[in-house]
Request: fold
Amino acid sequence: MAIGNTSSSSSSCCSRFWSSALRSKRLVSPAEKTARDNSGRGLSRRLGVFDLILLGIGASIGAGIFVVTGTVARDAGPGVTISFIIAGASCVINALCYAELASRFPAVVGGAYLYTYTAFNELTAFLVFSQLMLDYHIGAASIARSLANYIVSFLGIFPVFKDNIPAWIGHGQNIGGVLSINILAPILLMLLTLVLCLGVKESSAVNSFMTVTKVIIVIIVICAGAFEVDVSNWSPFVPNGMRSVFTGATVVFFAYVGFDAVANSAEESKKPQRDLPIGIIGSLLVCIALYIGVCLVITGMVPYNLLGEDAPLADAFKSKGLKFVSVLISIGAIAGLTTALLVGLYVQSRLYLGLGRDGLLPAIFAKVHPKRHTPLYSQIWVGCVASILAGLLNVKILSHILSVGTLTGYSVVSACVVVLRWKDRTNSQVSSAKRLEGIIFLITVALSGFAAGLLFHYQVSFIFVIAAIVVAIGASLALHFRQVYGDSVGFSCPGVPIVPSICIFFNMFLFGQLHREAWFRFVILSIVMVGVYATYGQYHADPSADENIIYHEAPVESPR
Reply:
């Protein structure tokens, strides 16, 4: 009898777990929109289209534009320009997917997490959030330490500070392999957290000023370097073959990461349906143009095989007697890291706000300051986590497990575009069998991309890579011909389902290029977060709770 009760209880727990895990948010119509936006409990809509573009640029361009361009050029030669074009094109089609979904869900925070919750289910959305958040936490700590390092190095140009600043203040004092004391990094994080707590108007003003400063410096660097270009340095343009160019593209792809931050500002955008797609795609196009300009200048000024390793762009200008440009580069790097850190902390707090509203995290994360209209507790939390990591740990040893969340989020967002189009024809759910069939095809595309990346990484015969590509093409065609697709409300991603399938394939191809520690991190974190969901999330989450914001399609804005 006891055995029977135990078996029945176990079956009941499993049944409850799966019923909770597989529930999703309802995509309601504009007619069902509530008056929450005017209740005073939401965030303040203060961001215009220019603010959104600067937000995306601020998140994407850090100090890397002055470093990664040169380091990749050491392998790819002048062909690094092609690497940035390939990576930029890949990011553009990812941005098209983000833009469509951002125009469908303009009123609330959540980004990739929200899209996944609506298109797939609660557990998948929670796992996407966890992968993204670990990237954000480690990334913020890493950027803060880099910023502290750059500030201390910049102060070194003044005699009073040169060689007089202890390592534990800015550069980091290592204690063993894991611990590393850094005092300045947590201070910088707390200052930026304070700015974000004051309100989106204040934080947007800081980001706009720093981003404009950074862009102006990059343009000055490009213009100054253009007069020192020797076109003979561009020949041969691809000295080490196209493999080095494609390998370079997989590296520089992450230099563009950040445009997705715009999607998380939906609840603070003045005209989200119109401005979010412009902000996402516009910021990315500006970044592509700046990166290409820097690539052409640096490879034209100095032969690619003579570029420095740590500060290639600054070294190139010093070799031409333009030391003042090196100082500008340091200022630009500080501005770039500041904006990347500011936007990173901003995005994290909005994601925590979304999960707090849905009950997947404690309700304290959902509280919004009544006057400042900022998620105060969420913002303080992410600032504290990043400060602890930046102040005490050598985060460089964790760099190998970064980018997993970004690639996971991009892939799932692309899949969401496809899945949500299935629902559009009649505004009703597709049949379970057709839905399962479509998801299997999407998984096939993802696994084919991962296999191709893995084979390319270990330099297996290219025939096997082509075989993986053929399988992905077959699955994409099956998605195209076996499913019925409707039109999207607002901005529409072209070529659905082919374009999203290309995104998924390339993102997972990059996933296969990561270190094996990154793959282990993905699996281990997923298992841990399933446990967290099983013990807390499934009992507290409620997608349709009255206190939660309503997720709705944007009403069509009347033309002026």
Remarks:
- Strands lie at 173-175, 179-181.
- The first strand starts at residue 173 and ends at 175.
- The mean pLDDT is 86.
- The CA atoms of residues 175 and 181 lie 8 Å apart.
